[in-house]
Amino acid sequence: MKRTELEVSDQLGRGLLSTMRSLLVLGQLMTESTGERQIIELAITAVPSLACCRVVAHELAGSLDLRGSATGYGLEGGLVAVDGAAWGWGYPLGNPRGRFGVLVVAADEEPSWEEQFLLRALAQQTGAALANCRLHAQELAAAEQLSEVNERLRASLGALERSIEIHDRLTAVAVSGEGRGGIARAVHELTGLSVAIEDRYGNLEAWAGPERPDTYPKESTRRREALLRRAGESDRPIREQGSLIALAHPQGDILGVISLIDPSGLAGDHDIMALEHGATILAMELARIRSLAEGELRVRRDLVDELLNGTEEESALARAGALGYDLQRPHRVVLVESGRLGVGVDRLFQAVRIAARDEGAGSLLVARGLQIVLLADRPVEWESLRQAVMRCLGGAQVRVAVGEDCSTVAGFPQSFGQARIVLQLMKSAEWMDQAVRFDDLGIYRLLAGKGDLPEVDRFIQRWIGSLIDYDEKRNAELVRTLMLYLCNGGNYQATAEALFVHRNTLKYRLQRIRQISGLDLSDPEISFNLQLATRAWQTTIALRGLHP
Questions:
Q1: Parent domain of 399
Q2: Which pTM was predicted?
Q3: Are residues 265 and 194 part of one domain?
Q4: Which of 252, 377, 427, 499 lies 20 to 30 Å from 271, alpha-carbon distance?
Q5: pLDDT for position 68
């Protein structure tokens, strides 16, 4: 009998050992499981094979209330009242470090000690697997977060490296003095997009990249100003007709524009960054150029002022040589003036500079009051020069007065004075806007060159003095009427149109002229002297206008 009990005991031990091995395998499966639900399902499936029990409830959150059990509960769990079952037990799913839920089993009778041992072992293995699963999930989450941080860090480092590359490339251009062309090439190399650099008015100054237009498009002044205003109000480059546009405006003064040609909208953040850096370097370059130009302009202005007022030849030649200018060639002093309101002297200066360059008239010019003084170092077609200035101004009225050749430094004041006389005559004689040389003045040149003005005045008084007095007392225009009548060869229609009066009014005025002067206008000798007197009168007005 004892032997049989030993055999039974031994058999039970071997069965328990086999079951424990199965639990170990199950625990390994649970540990390798990818989710908590899968672990719980393995535990639920294993319960009937370990004891004559069934799973009636499970809760991963561990919210089932076991405190009402008869024996209480701890790590081993406790009794649970289960409807329709003689015995129920809640096994905590956890370990000493934490609790992850509860597994409730029920049976028609209380399981054996071995079965309860196996159930507790299953619960402990399940808890350990759940703990491992959650730890693994936390590690994965941490790894993902670390990966995201690393990715953001790599992106930030990449952006920083790209920013440094852009900054270094454009700084190198600025330091090397490659100018606007170098800036355009650098931005093109950094972005792969064509780059255009324009001045404030839309004239192309540099291009880098393919597909440069044969004829560069230029907007109207109104549209250009609207574009510059809109770009100036934005903190970032703006998009306009397939291009990204940034301003070069140091201290708010717009000096130029740099554009990325991007009709397909491919430009990214780094391209915009390159454009913005390019605009900054361009602003520095244009400010430097303007500063040099202003300095050179001051030197040029001082030199021209001295030449026009009279200066020592050796000093003037030395200063001109420092500017790279040859004063020993023949020159003419040219005065340019616009009769149109709203044409500022700066705009007129730029128009004359461009026209003189295009016509080959010279490069030494300054602004004096509302007039531009040009020292022309070669003969040109002066009317062609005037037309070129008008085109630059959009058709504004322009007068050009040209003094005689001067071959020495000492001759500049005389040529300047002659140009001033021409300009004054154009105004006082009401000549149409044109280009006039002092050489071509004819009788006016003779009168202007005569130093004895009192003698000229006596001649004027002899022939038209009574008409001058009448005009001054009556605020009339008899002298002007006579002048235009004689200039038009006695043509009534042409004279009336020039005076903007009716033919009858003209006839009345001519009759008054005959009555007051007592002269016969049809007499050729009298007509010649009257024409000479009116021109002398115009000349004296011009000369006195120079020295009021």
A1: 311-441
A2: 0.47
A3: yes
A4: 252
A5: 39
